[in-house]
Amino acid sequence: MFPVIVGLNHRTAPVEIREKVSFPHYQIESALLELKSYPGLEGLVILNTCNRLEIYAATTDVDLGINSIKSFLVNHAHLEEQVIFQHLYVHTLYEAVRHLFRVVAGLDSMILGETQILGQVAQAYEKAVKAGVTNKVINVFFQNALTVGKRVRTETQIDQHPTSISYTAVELAKQALGDLTGRSILILGAGEMSALTAKHLVANGASTVMVSNRSHARAQNLAAEFDGIAVPFDQLGECMQKVDIVISATAATNFVILPEQIQEVMEQRNYRPLLLVDIAVPRDIHPDVSEILGITLYDIDDLREVIDTHQNAREIAGKKAEVIIEEEMAQFMKWHNSLFAIPTIVALQHRGEEIKNYQLEHALSKLGGLTEKQEKVIRSMANSIVNQLIHTPITNLKEFATTRQGHLYTEIFQNLFSLDVDEESVRSMRSVPQNSSQVITKEG
């Protein structure tokens, strides 16, 4: 039973292709059940995000399983094979495991170390479990991966360094003002950047949101998202007297906030601290505003400097995460190869016992008249011969089983000795991870 992945992402496919192969969340369960009817697929998970569509499967026939997934995607997307196939990537066996480990750690994301993907993978797995389309190998595969994702974030803190402009603006606000709980904010501009920044501020405790835009209707729409207040553009001065934070992201071509305006505002505030964050290009706030008592001003260059520092920190954390992934890969490989090695060793031992017992009984029946001591010596010698003969092959197979080619060595071993490995033994081995402390055994 081997894990395989067929998918595409933001690196391999443009958005117009990703749109056609994606699934609305309410269709995932029916898609899983349909896919399960294709030949060669034993366990399944569909991971569908805005940046990737990946189908994970467990199969006993790698080529058949991959072809089934490709056929399913072609039928679903209603695209010609040559159109969709050029955007797909395929990972099999250990490269599939490594890929999922990197995905869940945030190392394969558009933003290095992003947090959201961990929850998305968990939800994808839960939907597959609910649909009843997973199996033991898929369960262990994904439970391991989720453990890896949590371990990476705990040990490297890769997601503790914001790299988006809107989120970094909020982090700078927290540095300047401390706790944002109960703080009031004024957003200038009603575009996407303004909306994202407001969202992060509210998530961090800001309780009052005012929005001002030259188009009052757009200001009202954005304010409504946060149960806020839309403020006419000509009342900015009065509003700035009341708030703690001003985030400016308009599309103006000239300065919107000037020093003389802020000087008057600060006099009315009795120079109570006011944080101004200018994320517009060109800038909205005149740089001389920073000279006024009580003002803290950050512009886009200040934010980008922080982002660059954080990106460097994430890259360092990413290297640490790769080390963790290789450690976890070694554990998974050891477990997966043991699925085949241990039943094979048991089968060889049984074969040795069968041959020994048959030859012993045949020889003893011919000899006749042996004393109890003589028979014991012969039986002991037979045991010793068989044990010594199979000791080295078994020792070598145990060693080879921990390598990347362990399952291949096991198959060759079975063929050389004509072993009939009990498939039930292999199935039972799949249910319990061997020698891997990081595997979660609870299903679901």
UniProtKB/TrEMBL annotation:
<feature type="binding site">
    <location>
        <position position="109"/>
    </location>
    <ligand>
        <name>substrate</name>
    </ligand>
</feature>
<feature type="domain" description="Quinate/shikimate 5-dehydrogenase/glutamyl-tRNA reductase">
    <location>
        <begin position="171"/>
        <end position="306"/>
    </location>
</feature>
<dbReference type="InterPro" id="IPR015896">
    <property type="entry name" value="4pyrrol_synth_GluRdtase_dimer"/>
</dbReference>
<feature type="binding site">
    <location>
        <begin position="114"/>
        <end position="116"/>
    </location>
    <ligand>
        <name>substrate</name>
    </ligand>
</feature>
<dbReference type="GO" id="GO:0008883">
    <property type="term" value="F:glutamyl-tRNA reductase activity"/>
</dbReference>
<comment type="pathway">
    <text>Porphyrin-containing compound metabolism; protoporphyrin-IX biosynthesis; 5-aminolevulinate from L-glutamyl-tRNA(Glu): step 1/2.</text>
</comment>
<keyword id="KW-0521">NADP</keyword>
<dbReference type="GO" id="GO:0050661">
    <property type="term" value="F:NADP binding"/>
</dbReference>
<feature type="binding site">
    <location>
        <position position="120"/>
    </location>
    <ligand>
        <name>substrate</name>
    </ligand>
</feature>
<keyword id="KW-0627">Porphyrin biosynthesis</keyword>
<dbReference type="Pfam" id="PF00745">
    <property type="entry name" value="GlutR_dimer"/>
</dbReference>
<dbReference type="InterPro" id="IPR036343">
    <property type="entry name" value="GluRdtase_N_sf"/>
</dbReference>
<comment type="subunit">
    <text>Homodimer.</text>
</comment>
<dbReference type="Pfam" id="PF01488">
    <property type="entry name" value="Shikimate_DH"/>
</dbReference>
<protein>
    <recommendedName>
        <fullName>Glutamyl-tRNA reductase</fullName>
        <ecNumber>1.2.1.70</ecNumber>
    </recommendedName>
</protein>
<feature type="binding site">
    <location>
        <begin position="49"/>
        <end position="52"/>
    </location>
    <ligand>
        <name>substrate</name>
    </ligand>
</feature>
<dbReference type="Pfam" id="PF05201">
    <property type="entry name" value="GlutR_N"/>
</dbReference>
<feature type="site" description="Important for activity">
    <location>
        <position position="99"/>
    </location>
</feature>
<keyword id="KW-0560">Oxidoreductase</keyword>
<feature type="active site" description="Nucleophile">
    <location>
        <position position="50"/>
    </location>
</feature>
<dbReference type="GO" id="GO:0019353">
    <property type="term" value="P:protoporphyrinogen IX biosynthetic process from glutamate"/>
</dbReference>
<feature type="domain" description="Glutamyl-tRNA reductase N-terminal">
    <location>
        <begin position="6"/>
        <end position="156"/>
    </location>
</feature>
<dbReference type="InterPro" id="IPR006151">
    <property type="entry name" value="Shikm_DH/Glu-tRNA_Rdtase"/>
</dbReference>
<dbReference type="InterPro" id="IPR036291">
    <property type="entry name" value="NAD(P)-bd_dom_sf"/>
</dbReference>
<feature type="binding site">
    <location>
        <begin position="189"/>
        <end position="194"/>
    </location>
    <ligand>
        <name>NADP(+)</name>
    </ligand>
</feature>
<dbReference type="InterPro" id="IPR036453">
    <property type="entry name" value="GluRdtase_dimer_dom_sf"/>
</dbReference>
<dbReference type="InterPro" id="IPR015895">
    <property type="entry name" value="4pyrrol_synth_GluRdtase_N"/>
</dbReference>
<comment type="similarity">
    <text>Belongs to the glutamyl-tRNA reductase family.</text>
</comment>
<feature type="domain" description="Tetrapyrrole biosynthesis glutamyl-tRNA reductase dimerisation">
    <location>
        <begin position="320"/>
        <end position="419"/>
    </location>
</feature>
<comment type="function">
    <text>Catalyzes the NADPH-dependent reduction of glutamyl-tRNA(Glu) to glutamate 1-semialdehyde (GSA).</text>
</comment>
<dbReference type="InterPro" id="IPR000343">
    <property type="entry name" value="4pyrrol_synth_GluRdtase"/>
</dbReference>
